[in-house]
Structures are given as structure tokens and as C-alpha cells.
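Fold this: Fluoride-specific ion channel FluC
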Amino acid sequence: MRAGPLVVVAAGGALGSAARYGLAEAWPGPATGFPWATLVTNLIGCALLGALMRVVTTKTDAHPLVRPFLGTGVLGGFTTFSTYAVEARDLVAGGHLGPAAGYVLGTLAGALLAVRLGIWAAARWGQP
């Protein structure tokens, strides 16, 4: 394994995880409330990942470490499937079946839409 990609993924992951933590701290939800911070974090991350993938797959002069740093590192650290799964389980365990279903389905549909929106935005902002 080459050290370059590992180093940039680790550095990007540290930045993305710190950003996610900061957002969660700035927007704490009540213990039994809807996990808005995680939902918004994941949707933003999906939109940014869609835009990034549009850029790196259409731009021939993109540095080879851009995708591992930003995609796997920063955005992989920023988004969180594990927290999403725990929060969905907590909503179900607390008897909040409607909000749990909304969270699970809303995250899935929202994530797919956000990726598409990111691709569209990157195309509109000068990407071929």
C-alpha cells in the first residue's frame, strides 16, 4: 500500500469528523427528539460527494489524491451511517415509530436526491 493515499485519507477523515462533531455540538437535539443534525450532515455530505464525483470524473487534470482526500477522507469522516443507524434504533426503542420511519426513509430518499443535486450543481457551475 502506498503511503500517499493513506495519509490524505487519514488527514481528510480527521477534518471531516471534526466538522461533523462541531455541527452536532452546535445543533444538539433532545435525547428523544428527531436527529436533525445527523440528517442534515448526511444530506450535505451526499450533495458534496455528488459534486465531487462529477468534478473528478470529468476533469482530466484533477490530482490523483483529490478523490481519496475529499471523498473518502473529508466526506467519509463527515457523513455517518453508524450514528444514523443508532439514532434510528433509539427512535424505535423509544416508541417513536413514525419519526423513525420518516428518518430512515427520509435519509435514504434525501441522500439519493442530494447526490443528484450535487452532480447537477457541479455541472451548472462550469463542469463539463
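The mean pLDDT is 92. The two ends are 33 Å apart (CA to CA).
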